[in-house]
Design a protein that fits this description.
It is a single chain. By secondary structure, the protein is α/β, with parallel strands linked by helices. It is built from five helices and six strands; from the N terminus they run αβαβαβαβαββ. It has a six-stranded mixed β-sheet with strand order 2-5-1-6-3-4. Strand 3, helix 4 and strand 4 form a beta-alpha-beta unit. Helix 3 runs parallel beside helix 4. It starts with 10 loop residues before the first helix and ends in a 9-residue tail after the last strand.
Length: about 150
């Protein structure tokens, strides 16, 4: 246990989040996402786990240390429901609230079609699989920067 670090963040996840650079993407995946297969194509090349957490709990822990990229529109993305791209299920609404809190303002996540999401996930830095069992509990966060003091 470390002071100031959310105890839900394990060593492997902290390592990956620290190693990511500006613009790199991390995937937060539900239990149905093909995480193992997709993670083999990522920069990290191996699957990370936060098994006993919902997507919202994992997002809250991750965003406690990860700045989001405020220079781009796709700073945070959600997997769209097949044939219902504008529908936001409860699992996504929960994560949206956490994103808004982390950003200090309302900034809607960008919807990404299911198969396009898979493709983008393969190009990400890492995949973190959660214990989320609700459908469409899959998200991508683009790492931002921490400005120098006084900015």
């Amino acid at each position: 246990m470390l002071k100031g670090i959310d105890p839900r963040l394990n060593a492997e996840v902290l390592f990956a989040l620290r190693a990511m650079g500006h613009g790199d993407v991390v995937v937060i995946a539900d239990t149905n996402f093909p995480s193992d297969q997709v993670s083999r194509s990522t920069v990290l090349g191996e699957l990370l786990r936060m098994d006993n957490l919902t997507a919202a709990e994992a997002a809250e822990a991750i965003l406690s240390v990860l700045p989001l990229d405020n220079f781009v529109d796709d700073f945070a993305m959600r997997m769209e429901i097949v044939d219902e791209p504008d529908t936001v299920p409860p699992v996504q609404a929960e994560v949206q609230q956490i994103v808004d809190k982390a950003e200090g303002e309302e900034r809607p996540m960008v919807g990404v079609e299911r198969f396009a999401f898979y493709d983008q996930a393969r190009d990400s830095y890492a995949v973190i699989q959660t214990g989320e069992r609700r459908f469409y509990g899959c998200f991508m966060f683009r790492k931002g920067v921490i400005p120098p003091d006084g900015m």
